[in-house]
Amino acid sequence: MQIKDLGQFHEMTNLAKNSPEFFWEQIAKTFVWKKNWHKISSGNFNQLDIKWFPGAELNITENILDRHLKTHPQKCALIFLANNPSDLPLKISYQELHDRVCQAANALKNLGVKKGDIVTLYMGMVPELFISVLAAARIGATFSVVFGGFSAQSLAGRINNSKSQFLITSDFSLRGDKIIPLKAVVDEALKECPSVKSVLIHQRYPDGIIDLISGRDFFWKDTVEKAQTICPPEYVDAEHPLFILYTSGSTGSPKGLVHTTAGYMCYAQYTFSNVFQMAADDIFWCTADLGWITGHSYVTFGPLLAGHTTVMFEGIPTFPTPARFWEEIDRLGVTHFYTAPTAIRALQAQGTKWLENKKLDSLKVLGSVGEPINEEAWEWYHTHVGLKRCPIVDTWWQTETGGIMISALANITPSIPTFATLPLPGIFPVLMDADGREIAWKKGQEAEGNLCIKHPWPGIARSIFGDHNRYSENYFKAYPGYYFTGDGAKIDAHGNFRITGRVDDVVNVSGHRIGTAEVEDVLNRHPFIVESAVIGAAHAIKGQGLHAFCIPQKSISPNEELAILNEVNQLLTKEIGAIAKIESLQIVTDLPKTRSGKIMRRILRKIVENDFSNLGDTSTLLNPLIVQQLIDKRK
Ligand code: WTA
Known about the structure:
Blueprint: H1 6-18, H2 20-28, E1 41-42, E2 51-52, E3 57-58, H3 60-69, E4 76-81, E5 90-93, H4 94-111, E6 118-122, H5 127-138, E7 142-145, H6 152-162, E8 166-170, E9 173-175, E10 178-180, H7 182-190, E11 198-202, E12 217-219, H8 220-223, E13 236-237, E14 241-247, E15 255-260, H9 261-276, E16 283-286, H10 293-305, E17 309-313, H11 324-332, E18 336-339, H12 341-348, E19 365-369, H13 375-385, E20 392-395, E21 429-432, E22 447-453, E23 463-464, H14 468-476, E24 483-491, E25 497-502, E26 506-509, E27 512-515, H15 516-523, E28 529-539, E29 543-552, H16 558-575, E30 582-587, H17 601-608, H18 625-634
Bound molecules: 5'-O-[(S)-ethoxy(hydroxy)phosphoryl]adenosine.
């Protein structure tokens, strides 16, 4: 179902409100099913046994591959842009993708992978990753993609949490001028992962040297490339887990969100088609890595379910120069470009000279995702990339939501700088006041509060892997009967939503979620540090940066403070990955805590941002005097 104009948008919004079952059924009917559902949905936010299309059976790859082979087998499905721009773009048709996915699926079967098994993928952005995701789904295995920038420890933690038995990796990954030894990281991780039986290795850099463990390690070229190109789809229940994706929360270690097959499929295509409004020959480029939800829903599933052409980029925006994105847009004729505010700000900081002589005339729609986009970055994107012709869709959503929730629909509903604007038909966001009550917003009024969603939608994650209780505590406890997003938001007089950022202990660094608890955990392992508090504060390029306040074992000189910052950052790279880097570290004698022992991060944030004027009520602190000490030291 693709909405065509504003009138239809309002019609669909009303239809989804008044007849939700009918609304979602129309969307479901556009897919191929092995067996029909006996109900559209069941469950609610009190019971937390949410199901969509129960009773149905399907295979998502049949909807991505076989379905499109009937109408456009030779259409380009995937364009691969290698790290090195002198490598020609690699174009893979729907037919070829089908054949390569079937080969990989057969190879996985030969390795012993069965329906319901969990396959972990730890790779760079190469077609083999894309193919592996689909191959797992082809045979009913659940895939778990771990971002190739995570450390051995992080990888091991995710594998052990899911008890995954199979791993697919590359020997190396190529990013900018770096060659990252993925297989060496895997070897280190697997020392602590007894569950893993087999490792399949794709060779991205065959000149490099890797260690092999006989009986455990197999090469892609010896297995996948020799396999049959036909593999019948394995049909699964609508609620069969399609993938697990780990993301950070405000407490504890990263949690594995479980997305199930039918609901995710319907939601990925519905949101993709309506937000981006692609025409048949358009080319979609989402710059996200497959290690994140954006790469799942809008590099892979959304575009392919809709039968379009999607671009996969191996490199980074600044290699070999900050003109890379713009050169590729011109080279390929990209029509729809979807990236993160962090990338926009980083390129904006390099100046407009990199855009000189770039045509960018193929572009029709621009998108933004992952963090709030500030007005300056929005204007720059609109003026210098979109040449003031292209609407910007600022898409708000989360790993948990599976797909876009609040966004303009390109050329249908208006784009407004810094506003995600309106919810998609079928999505019911509301704001909560300080007393935990829903704010009854009316036209002409403004409102601000914590953002919740009212009714289940097909794309919502169904659980946290192995810990349904944590799922319920995390998302449904604060506001019973509602899904709590962890974000704050405002609504303007016309009903447009503006996301103001996280209100929990999650920091959004360059669009990547990092839990302060996770970082504190690592910091506290440093021999000099007894206790620490980590906060996120505004950062010109990254959106937010991490800052630490630490209580030391013994008194420490200012010189040692810098040394500890460096050591802590090395530790963080080793334990989490390079994305978890501390910008500043302040040694303190105490931390501002409430009587119940909770660190008042709000105060620390203000101190880092040099905003000492309005620290709010500090009278409930155990040790109110510490605040002045922290300010004095900061000054
Ligand atoms: C933030 C990424 C403002 C938000 C898809 C959310 C945004 C978190 C936007 C989810 C946006 C994402 N405007 N904030 N357009 N998009 N966020 O799970 O805080 O990696 O809760 O999913 O990113 O991050 P996640």
